[in-house]
Amino acid sequence: MKVRVLKGTNQIGGCITEITSDKGTRIIIDFGEDLPDDNVTLTKENPNYEGLTTGTKKYDAVFITHSHGDHIGLINYILDDIPVYVEPESKKIYKLLSVFTCKQIRFKTQDMLYKEPIIINNDIKVTPYYVDHSAYHSSMLLIEADGKKILHTGDFRNNGLTGQEFEPTLKSIGHVDLIITEGTSLSRVDEPNETEEHLMERLLTVFKKYDQVFVLQSSTNIDRLKTFYNVSKKTNKTFIEDIFTANIAVSIDDDSIPSPYNRDDVYTWVTSKYRKEKSLKFKRKYVYPFLDRSKQKAYLNKKYCLLVKASMEEAIFKLYKKNFIDNACLVYSMWDGYRDKEALKNFLEIIKKYGIIDVGTYHTSGHADRKTIELLNSLKAKKVIPIHTTEPEKLKEVLNNVIVIKDKEIVEV
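Above: the chain's sequence. Below: its structure in token form.
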């Protein structure tokens, strides 16, 4: 086999990996958008990959590891005759995200199920494995052809609620010839990740101190959703989900995820934006089913945990005017780097006027720390390629047989 990283050897997000067998079967792993920064404006144009998004088909399949936009965000552009494989729950989440952000959905996909091999052209075998990450139902992929094995880790960690499954999964995979691994944390502070369980213990202190807790978190971080719900129960607070989070929680086939459909103590915040600005078709499907468990009943006791977005300042102001905010804080539960974005900075500044105290960041990473990455040494790979990192050389401090390459450079397996 030959491996070529089309993009991602020296950046976080937007990684695209090509694998070609000796017989010429060619697959792509992940096809996402670049992460935006202050110097980059994302375009909505075809990225123009010959044989993948334009021209005549040159690829036999595309595999998506999870639902984050920097891994899946460009699949609408893939040529119609190229099969695209996505884990079913990841697909649900990405479709909802597209609907709520008014992004057109026109792609067709095939289901990728854990531990069920997918054979492409009677040649390349791809087996997905569950892996812990801040995106629900993420996958790592074992690719086999020509008597060789490649493990593409996708994004991973072992500090989430299902992190204990990581080492047994590696043991079941056994030795491989090459690993393609993310190294996001290599450019960050070299500290062990906090576990989700420990984070919950720290949050209990905050929830006991404040009556109203406003939470900024990613709606697709299901571990964190469970954490905030559990802390709310322990501190006798009503738990209120924003309408997007509520739709995600309801759509996933997992009763352990708190939603207004499976918990009597979970409510939904339906802001005027969704009542007035959205189409009747949208409201019938995504708003009306939640109105009987909406916010009007939920915050009357003035002890609640409310999931919010930076776009909800007007709704929070209405709570303030009605005297439903009197001992309140905001818990920020995402990567600290997002705090520098202008819209978020403005939101955090405005809510101070309503007496909401920013108590800081309560978050644990969705990416593997160094000690977790080091576990990949158990696979005894002959070569290791770092992607999804701005510090690829640092992987040599953690793993054996690392080779640092440039975009589009070919590596023989």
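The chain has two domains: 2-189+366-412, 196-361.
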